[in-house]
Amino acid sequence: MGDHFEKGQHALLNEGEENEMEIFGYRTQGCRKTLCLAGSIFSFGILPLVFYWRPAWHVWANCVPCSLQEADVVLLRTTDEFQTYSWKKVMWIYLSSLNSEFGVTPDHPLITDEEFIINRAIRKPDLKVRCIKVQKIRYVWNNLEEQFQKIGCLEDWLSSTKIHLKFGSGLTREEQAIRRLICGPNTIDVKITPIWKLLIKEVLNPFYIFQLFSVCLWFSEDYKEYAFAIIIMSIMSIALTVYDLREQSVKLHRLVESHNSITVSVCGRKAGVQELESRFLVPGDLLVLTGNKVQMPCDAILIDGSCVVDEGMLTGESIPVTKTPLPKTESSEPWKTQSEADYKRHVLFCGTEIIQARGACSGTVRAVVLQTGFNTAKGDLVRSILYPKPMNFKLYRDAIRFLLCLVGTATIGMIYTLCVYVLSGESPEEVVKKALDVITIAVPPALPAALTTGIIYAQRRLKKRGIFCISPQRINVCGQLNLVCFDKTGTLTRDGLDLWGVVPCDRSGFQEIHSFASGRSLPWGPLCAAMATCHSLILLDGTIQGDPLDLKMFEATTWEMALSGDDFHIKGVPAHAVVVKPCKTASQVPVEGIAILHQFPFSSALQRMTVIAQEMGGDRLAFMKGAPERVASFCQPETVPTSFVSELQSYTTQGFRVIALAYKKLEMDHHSTALTRDKVESDLIFLGLLILENRLKDETKPVLEELISARIRTVMVTGDNLQTAITVARKSGMVSESQKVILIEANETTGSPSASMTWKLVEEKKHIAYSNQNNYINIREEVSDNGREGSYHFALSGKSFQVISQHFSSLLPKILINGTIFARMSPGQKSSLVEEFQKLEEGRAALVTSFCMFKYMALYSMIQYVGVLLLYWETNSLSNYQFLFQDLAITTLIGITMNLNGAYPKLVPFRPAGRLISPPLLLSVIFNILLSLAMHIVGFILVQRQPWYSMEMHSVCTLQNESISKLIISPTAPEKIGSNGAFTSFENTTIWFLGTINCIIVALIFSKGKPFRQPIYTNYIFVLVLVIQLSVCLFILFADIPELYRRLDLLCTPILWRVYIIIMLSSNFIVSLVVEEAIIENRALWMTFKRCFGYQSKSQYRIWQRALANDPSWPLLNQTSFSDMPGCGRGVSYSNPVFESNEEQL
Fold first, then answer.
1. Antiparallel, parallel or unpaired: β 263-268 and 272-277
2. Closest among 798, 212, 703, 185 to 492, alpha carbons compared
3. Engineering a disulfide at 227: which of 218, 590, 867, 1124 sits with its beta carbon 3.0 to 4.6 angstroms away?
4. What is the per-residue pLDDT across 416-450, written as a single tens digit (0 to 9) for each?
5. Angstrom distances, CA of residue 560 to CA of 320, 471, 533, 582, 589
6. Contact present, 323 and 600 (Cβ < 8 Å)
7. Three-class SS of residue 485?
8. Is 971 within 8 Å of 950 (Cβ atoms)?
9. CA separation for the pair 1099, 136 (Å, rounded)
10. pLDDT at 788 over 50
11. Residue 520 per-residue DSSP state
12. CA atoms within 13 A on the CB side of 691
């Protein structure tokens, strides 16, 4: 399809989003549809099958291009590299049904108001809406903007003021009815797919269609045994696949079934509060949330009250999260961007559980429905399961090319067969059968099944180690892994945090550290109050729950937590608020307790949290906790000790996690919820530092050492302090002692669109203040330019990464080449970083196994192909039992057992080839094909030149001790006897023995062991199978058993000729083994070839690496770069630098 379209025919759906698609308009044409119907009948269903495999062809054949406004069919194409096509019919939604009930007419105010997409979608005066449904999401035609737009969610442009004003009182019944009809039901409906549908979908796979063709051909040639074997294997494969798909469908249905049957309270603008089934909810509805343990049936924006939510269903972490109401500001900015904090702190997501709902002044908790159905967070999760992303791995694309090459080879063989058999005067039926036979020989029907067994075995080995894979095909992708990103806390370090101590401070500076290991309780003061109140802990069923860090901090105070009663308002505390009290054994605490009135929750973007608390009968206070640098920036400068930077650095360089605390007194003339965050978080008094110890896991260092020794890069991406991250990187071995760390700091210039970037060397010095075993890290401002000596690593913060991405995009790939430590990274920045690394590519063993199986199946098919074509020259072929022995007794057993090799226990410092078309693999396959071809031709010609070949023969079997001269042999050809005399000949016998034993030889040679898999001798079953197969073949070769030879359509030959066959096979084995080991698998030799011929990798990673190696000014040290300097801005674009695909590594 070209790039020239009619006006309005082409557009983008979900532009800029992950599921972006191109959409093309088409109109069905009657004459085209009739022709396609006729073609379907006359092609006996082949045309519909082709249209099923190629949806775009269906549309192009049945329809003509038109504008999207006139289209009754749309063609969709994904904008990713796969460019997958699908098509949908345009449907109509009629609003006329609402006329009788609500009097909805074209001039109704709800219809004429075109502020929202829903209203713009209604075509007047006939009151109908055009829509399409793509991957469970409904899109309506916006008549004003003339494009399809997503429906089922509130518009992104809405400001917080607009949300409160428009939806704060709920919707009218008319608005609800219109939205319900256009947006559809609020259901995540995953129907259980019927078995017959799954069966048809599986059977229509091109692979099974080819198998059906092969089986029909074999039955016509009376090759029933192998046909039945293939049928049985296919039925088992189909049955297992359908069973798995059905089980997944049932599980997914049960997972979301409860979502559609929840009863909620909805507040209408005129109808008041009423109970409603959740499936009737529409975007804009006002929910009234009451009680605890409530499942959210939709995504909703909290506009009044606060909630504690368990988001474990979405995040996997069952840590209570506090949600705060969307503030009603005067800003006209979209509500998602008006605050510097993450907008998600105001959103209650579908599928999460509300643990506690607490009302504010009005006493009720209210939320506006944001998204319904599959538009919700839960719906998006379910859609990702229903419509997974295609897997991009060159192995599978190469596999298709490989199969096409086999098809091309088969085509050549077909032409050769037609010529030979037509010229020999064979019947047309026989000619067609022999020609079609070549296809089933050259393209082995058992190839996909053989590859699948390897992946299944790999999956089982991983499962035994507690590793589960929901997409088994991706195991092969792991074989190309060359970079691993690690989080710090809970991944490299232990899950739990130990509270090491607290460093108080006053006007004179930092005081002596208070160690909790001593058992002494922390003296009463603002610092103790901050630790007791500045957290997001909740009391649920008498148990304190929340973030582990908050829990450790609170437990260190030895205080207790309770809920205030109805009479607490006498002491200035609202009812049902969280109250912390000193324990009964505590002394010299002048307050009865402190109530937590309001929270500004922790946000990764803000790196802090704040609470408003009320002393019983005392002052109202604000406490802040967070990253030291952030907390200090909100404090009165005179309260922050002058030694703040050095004190912080002394702990972070030892790997401690450091949290700062601050507070201030608040006026009592405002309600706590009326105070804005900006007003509360200002002019604070710095209180001190909380020191937490996060030790490395025992397995961290050995795992990182193994990865590094295998030349797999390790990168740390954490939300923790930069200096802490550097220390952990050194202690874990991610950065070795001999390697340097260069700190990159980037900042936007105030009042200017430009930015600056500074490069500093991080120097190690011994420091004995707190531990003789730790290192002190100092940032050197002035240092000689010795950063190029040895390797180096870049370390930078999330803020710097953001600035570099925006202002120094040309330098970003250079930094990523050696970027190892990324600290203070928000979740969004982590995702962006991984995307920049994205094209990097038990996996190695599975990948090598797949390559071995590809090579073996290719050789098996080519060996059989060469042998059959040689016999076709004499208008001969292999008999059914000969084919059966090779296909079933040899190849099938090898295919099942060859994949049983386990992974080698140690990773080597290079990866296996990532492509089937890499030079070593191609050379291996081509060389062995040529070697087999040469051996078969030599055997074919030599057997015809033997002195006994042309003699008359009365019996095909020789008598023991009888000389060749006494044999009576026909002068023209051997006597045709046996079950199928047409096949018996000396050529047939020779070719069959050579081909059969050669299949065993290539299986042995191609079954690679080290360095990626266990040695072949550890695969006992496979070795046993090869020994038995070879023994049986040699027994048949040397055993003069007439009945056995008759069954296999073989002729007895002189002992000397049998020895010749063994010599030819042995020569083939020795040559193949020597070439495979000395050339094909000789990595040093290939590297030498690359150097001799000046080959250089074309991968982005290698190009950048070479450029940096030849740049004497890199890495930069003690310099400041500006974004408006030449070569530093956005002038140079790049496509993800990443790392090379491994065809260059060999």
1. antiparallel
2. 703
3. 218
4. 888 888 888 888 888 888 888 888 888 776 666 66
5. 19, 47, 11, 6, 13
6. no
7. strand
8. yes
9. 39
10. no
11. P
12. 22
The length of the chain in residues reads: 1146
Distance CA 547, CA 310 (A): 12
Q: What is the per-residue pLDDT for 1141? A: 32
For the chain, how far is it from start to end, CA to CA, in angstroms? 37
Query: Rounded to the nearest 5°, which phi and psi values hold at 908?
Result: -100, 160
Burial degree of 36 (CB within 10 A; 0-12, 13-18, 19+): middle
**With bands split at pLDDT 50, 70 and 90, how would you rate the model's confidence at 221?**
confident
Count Cα neighbours of 1084 within 13 Å in the Cβ-side half-sphere.
2
What's the token pair of residue 288?
């009234």
Q: Which of 801, 653, 788, 650 shows the shortest CA–CA distance to 726?
A: 653
CA dist 659 to 50, 313, 795, Å?
63, 29, 21
Residue 1017 pLDDT > 70, yes or no? yes
Q: Looking at 887-962, list the stretches that DSSP marks H as alpha helix, in order from N- to C-terminal side.
A: 893-897, 919-944
Among all chains, which residue has been given the structure tokens 């020795």?
Answer: 1070
157 vs 332: CA distance, rounded Å: 9
The helix/strand/coil state of 575 is: coil
Tell me the C-alpha distance between 245 and 249, whole Å.
Answer: 6
* Cα separation, 256 vs 377, whole angstroms: 13
Tokens 């829990």 -> residue: 551
On whether the CB atoms of residues 594 and 532 are closer than 8 A, the answer is yes
Structure tokens at 538: 């909740």
Q: Does 827 or 370 have the greater pLDDT score?
A: 370
Q: Which residues contact 333 (CB under 8 A, 6 or more apart)?
A: 159
Integer Cα distance of 292 and 538 in angstroms: 13
Are 1065 and 998 within 8 A, CB to CB? yes
- Give the other-Cβ count within 10 Å of 206's Cβ: 10
Candidate list 72, 80, 189, 487, residue with the active-site label: 487
CA atoms of 821 and 794, how far apart (whole Å): 7
The residue written with tokens 């044999």 in the block is: 967
Residue 268: CB atoms within 10 A of its CB come to 18
Q: Half-sphere exposure of 748 toward its Cβ, with a 13 Å CA cutoff? A: 11
Using CB atoms within 10 A of its CB, is residue 566 exposed (0-12), middle (13-18) or buried (19+)? exposed
User: Are the CB atoms for 390 and 327 separated by under 8 Å?
Assistant: no
The residue whose two tokens read 């379910």 is: 382
Cβ burial of 377 (10 Å; 0-12, 13-18, 19+) is buried
Is 785 designated active site?
A: no
What's the pTM value of the predicted model, to 2 decimals?
0.71
Could you give the percent of the chain with pLDDT greater than 90? 12
8-state DSSP, 418: H
Counting beta carbons within 10 angstroms of the beta carbon of residue 805, is it exposed (0 to 12), middle (13 to 18) or buried (19 or more)?
A: middle
Question: What does DSSP assign to residue 688?
Answer: E
Residue type, 356: Q
**What pLDDT is stored for residue 55 in this prediction?**
92
Structure tokens at 401: 């090319």
* Two tokens, residue 10: 């082409």
